[in-house]
Design a protein that fits this description.
This protein is α+β, with helices and mostly antiparallel strands. The chain has 2 domains: about 190 residues, Thermophilic metalloprotease-like; about 200 residues, no CATH class. The chain has 12 helices and 19 strands. A 7-stranded antiparallel sheet has the order 14-13-10-6-5-18-19. Strands 2-1-3-4 form a 4-stranded parallel sheet, with helices on both faces. The protein has a 4-stranded antiparallel sheet with strand order 9-15-16-17. Helix 6 packs across helix 10. The longest helix is centred in the middle third of the chain and has 23 residues.
Length: about 425
């Protein structure tokens, strides 16, 4: 059975989800073109996400996107990606990634909006030699890295949103009958994105305002973003200098640069358009000093790295660097990840997430950072965000091709302050 057959209100909630993506995540402007892509795992949107793409197309047209040429989609091909790895066809894969990167660069030059619809295929590279999986990721990071830097710096308005598919649902809800898995994942995504079951129709068009119904998702998101801003402002008022993480298998500390600022995922483009970089979002985050992490970390959730899983990760840091790394599964791939470049063994982000989110209370492992990072506090190996500093501090800021979120099950504190 499809999700539409399992969920009686699937149609209205899908339309509401698409409206949130377009009007809150992207804040798509009238006349602005849109490129829908996925430069992380498949190098294109999974064909299983067609129903989401069509809903977004309709919402984008309603928001004033030119039709039909104003909306373009880069589709992915999982079997072709696996074949590239199996044949070590790096030249062919590089050509494909370079072509996608060129399209994204053109969008940036023209001021178009970018939507990254992400899913997860944890078994895509099952049985594939570790070095081939790592090489795919390296090539992908090498090309997308120059796009990511421009996006984070405000090159245009963009957002990342979840795209449930059968493969992803099977990994998350393996304990359910096959015909119920996709509907269960959609229910999780709807809840995380504040799309209530009782919604009878899509949200009202236009920007948030005080006269919207209380159950309208756009108004609900407006309230949520204000709450995140308030938490951000409170953290910034504390002027914290150190953080300590303590939990089962985790005991480490890090220092925050004097210039650090706590941020939310609500950013502003160079042209003045406010947008939300990822949906859902529950985090408030900043950048640590790259040389400061010290102690041990036990990662609470597996990570999907290029279609292969790494689980049971344990890391030891000294003077900011990972000096020991192990994993119950995917150990070799973890080492390849850490060998990506000099910055891959250092931290670029620390994030605080409330423990009462719908994703946290579900007790599920989601096999994708987009959901897993919003279920618990987390840190990230790799690239730091420059906007998390009031003024540049190259000595404190980590640089890397990668940015990999690691969820933690630990209490976070600063001297005299419990932050959990």
């Amino acid at each position: 059975m499809t999700a539409a057959e399992q969920l009686s209100d699937f149609g209205p909630r899908l339309r509401a989800f698409a409206e949130v993506v377009v009007r809150v995540g992207l804040n798509l402007q009238r006349g602005q073109r849109l490129l829908i892509a996925e430069p992380y795992e498949l190098q294109g949107v999974d064909r299983g996400a067609t129903v989401i793409v069509e809903a977004v197309r309709a919402a984008a047209r309603a928001a004033g996107c030119p039709h039909p040429a104003g909306i373009e989609v880069i589709w992915g091909d999982g079997p072709q990606l696996r074949e590239s790895a199996a044949k070590s066809d790096w030249r062919g894969f590089t050509r494909a990634v370079a072509a996608n990167t060129k399209k994204m660069e053109e969008c940036l030059r023209h001021g178009d909006a970018l939507l990254f619809l992400q899913g997860s295929q944890p078994d895509l590279m099952a049985g594939m030699p570790t070095n081939r999986v790592a090489e795919l990721r390296r090539i992908g990071w090498e090309h997308f890295g120059r796009i990511a830097g421009q996006l984070v710096a405000g090159g245009t308005n963009w957002t990342v949103a979840p795209a449930p598919t059968h493969a992803w649902a099977q990994a998350v809800y393996a304990d359910l009958p096959t015909d119920q898995q996709l509907a269960a994942l959609w229910e999780t995504v709807f809840a995380a994105c504040r799309i209530r079951p009782a919604l009878a129709a899509g949200p009202l068009p236009g920007p948030p305002s005080s006269d919207r119904p209380a159950d309208d998702p756009i108004a609900t998101w407006h309230t949520h973003l204000l709450a995140l801003q308030n938490r951000r402002d409170k953290l910034n008022s504390l002027r914290l200098t150190t953080l300590r993480y303590a939990g089962d298998g985790t005991d480490f500390t890090l220092t925050l640069p004097p210039e650090h600022v706590w941020c939310t995922a609500q950013l502003t483009s160079h042209s003045g358009v406010a947008f939300v970089a990822n949906l859902p979002t529950e985090e408030v985050f900043t950048t640590p000093h790259k040389d400061s992490a010290a102690g041990t970390v036990r990662v609470a959730r597996p990570i999907n790295y290029g279609g292969a899983m790494i689980d049971g990760i344990e890391l030891e840091f000294r003077q900011g660097r990972v000096v020991r790394a192990s994993a119950r599964s995917g150990h070799d791939l973890l080492n390849r990840l850490l060998d990506t470049d000099d910055g891959a063994v250092r931290l670029g982000e620390v994030a605080l997430v409330p423990h009462a989110t719908t994703l946290a209370s579900s007790g599920r492992l989601f096999h994708h950072s987009l959901l897993d990072e919003n279920a618990s506090d987390h840190i990230a190996l790799g690239e730091a965000y420059d906007f998390c500093l009031r003024s540049p501090n190259p000595r404190a800021t980590n640089r890397s091709l990668i940015h990999v979120d690691l969820s933690l099950d630990a209490l976070v504190s600063s001297p005299g302050t419990d932050l959990s």
